[in-house]
Each structure stands twice: as C-alpha cells, then as structure tokens.
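Quick one: Biopolymer transport protein ExbD from Fodinibius roseus, structure tokens please.
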Amino acid sequence: MFNKNRKREEPEVGGAGMADIAFLLLIFFLLVTTIDIDTGIGLQLPPAPEEDQEPPPIKERNLLNILVNAEGMILIDDEPTQVGEVKQIIKDFVTNRGEDPNLSDSPDKAIVSIKTARQTPYRTYINMLDEVMGAYNELRDQASQSEFGVPYSQLEDESDQQQAVRDIYPKKISIAEPDEG
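--- reply ---
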C-alpha cells in the first residue's frame, strides 16, 4: 500500500510570475529615476541687429575688457587679476558715474567685454563669469534695498519695481568669440 521507495517531488518556485515582477520593477525604476540634463549657461541674448545696422560707437572708458587666456590667467584691461578681485573691480567700474576718468561714465553706459582663448580652462571661465554676474546681482540688490526696502530677488518677476532696478544697473555683457591660439 505504501511504497516507501517512491521519490518525493522537489518543490519548485513558479517562474511564470518572475517575468511580471521584473517588468514591474523595470517600469518603477524608469519612472522614479531622475536623469540630470546639462542645461548650459543661462544668458539672455540681445535681439539680433539688422543687417545694414552699424554698431553704436562706444567710448573706450566705458568698456572693461576681460581676457581669460589659455593658461587660466584673468587679465582686466591687460592687468593680471585674481578671480576673487573681479567682482569688486566690476562694481567700481559700473558705479563710477564719471568720477574716475579711467572708469565708466555711468552704469547705463558701462559694458563688460569677456574674451577667452579656446584652451581656456572651463572652471576658470565659469568662476570668472560667476564673479561678473555676482557683481551685477549685488549692485541690483543694493539698489532694490535702497529703493524698495527688499532684496532684488524678492521683487515679483517682471514687475515695474524689478524693471526699475534693471534700468538703474543694466547688465551689458559682451562675450566675444574665443581666440584660436
């Protein structure tokens, strides 16, 4: 009646549901994983000039030339400068209001020109550009504090107050094509 020599069947794990589980896990990880997208440097470009339009004349004193060479040195008007000094130099240049004959006539006429070489270290260029943007942000914050009692960043986007501060310190930055050498 009872056969003692009979072998027992080995228990098995059902494999039919494994494919479903793997597919669900794959979908889950695809949905919850974020992929960093390189957005680049956010700059607002001016409108393109008409073909026959000549560029406006610029007084030499209203132009601050910044060169970042292939070795990563920053030269402001041909003077070697440390990255940490760039912000203060720009603030002095923009806020001169005609007092020093070597600096700009007014914030409205001040233009910062940035030029690099193709071999310029990327990190140095970005650090220098951050200093330039930081100088304008600090100037706009100071103007906003004195005019409206709040920092520029707390003003409503595209408001009349924000535009008034931008009119006081317009960001006139020229980024020239890099040199080949």
